[in-house]
User: What shape does this take?
Amino acid sequence: MITKDNYKKSIKPYQPKPKYFRNCIKAFLIGGLICSIGQGLTVFYMEVFGFTSKEAANPTVATLILIAALLTGFGVYDKIGQFAGAGTAVPVTGFANSITSAAMEHRSEGLVLGVSTNMFKLAGSVIVFGTVAAYIIGVLRYLIQSFL
Amino acid sequence: MKQGKQTWVFDNGVYIKGSATVTGPREKQGPLGQTYDYSFEDLYCGEDTWERAEQALLNKSIDLCLQKAKVRKDAVDLLVSGDLLNQNVTSNYVARDFPSSFLCVFGACSTSMEALAIASSQVDSGNSDVALASTSSHYSTAERQFRYPTEYGGQKPDTQTSTVTGAGAALVQKERSFVQVEAATIGKVVDFSANDPLDMGSAMAPAAADTIVQHLKDMNRQPEEYDMILTGDLSSVGTPIAKKLTYQFGYDIENVHRDCGLMVYNSNQNVFAGGSGCAVSAVVSYGHIMQQLRSGELNKVLIVATGALLSPTIVQQKETIPCIAHGVVLKRVSGS
Assistant: This one.
């Protein structure tokens, strides 16, 4: 018997279950592939331009961001994202997609109030929590180092 | 005239003189593709923003409806219209160029039948001679207002529905024609505490069941007296729940029930649980169903459009999703 009080519980059998295992495998494969491409780019920048591995990190990230932004613009990234889930959301490419897609979406409201105001709509929380987390870890590290 | 608790019976005779449906490209590829009066080839519909594209859809459906009914724009007394966007912008901007009284309605995806019920009641009461009911929705305008940017790559769950890009209009008047609007059951807001905006089928099922059961009680009818009981956008998730709920109330709708959201797309079109949006019930009812009523394949249909009265802001404030469903009975009139 489905009633108002037990509604959420009693309709469980009717709702399709998220395929966690399959999604994990897909995320692992596509996420891993993106990281491998990143590694390939790093090696490329080191070999061709003679960067150290540390110096090669920035151009590597920039290239991945450029590729993700282009794929978003061509309307392909959301399709890859639907397949890969966290595999495309977690790497820097997901961050690039969230900014590019929001910027594209709000082009119709103009460059200032549309694009620039809204482009960090989704990415904003990543920046906020990233900065706050970095700050807390920085303070902890300082404290631990000064007492040890 | 009121019958039972929530039902209006239009005793004086209200008829649909004409109706029209307009869709986007994806709907055209669906199983009902041939039944639409016009389909745009891309989502921009020849405009430069999504919002203007939705207005183009609604405008086109109203123009085609008037054309098919052979009624001039200025002969319409009342336009009743609504959509999904904030401040009902699509309808308001379309009404800006429409020379009649205008009532703007919002019932989320139940708007199609809410507008038709109001238009019919106005004609029945004599407040209007000719009234037009219309509604629209657009995949991209809905997506950006209720969910994420269209190109955002987040993974969507299988319970999510896809908003139908389309618009539908129906012209009602007293002059006898082949389809009569017999009655309307106005739903009440029902909230079973579902709070997942990506699973609106589950949220709306109790509202659909409530209106169907209330309608059958008010009219003292059994489900079998209808050739079809058509719900709006319960999708593959909400449909079995609504059937189960009505069954619990003693009405078995299994054999007569269909859901518009499950009729507009093919299973290989990647629409997850099915189609949704104001337009889904409008493009199915005002096209396919009207044609079947005209040809005699259907004689009496109860259309229950279902709406999740969802606000992304309020849901983020941990509120649940109130839902509503409005039912309208369309009946074939023989010999006209």
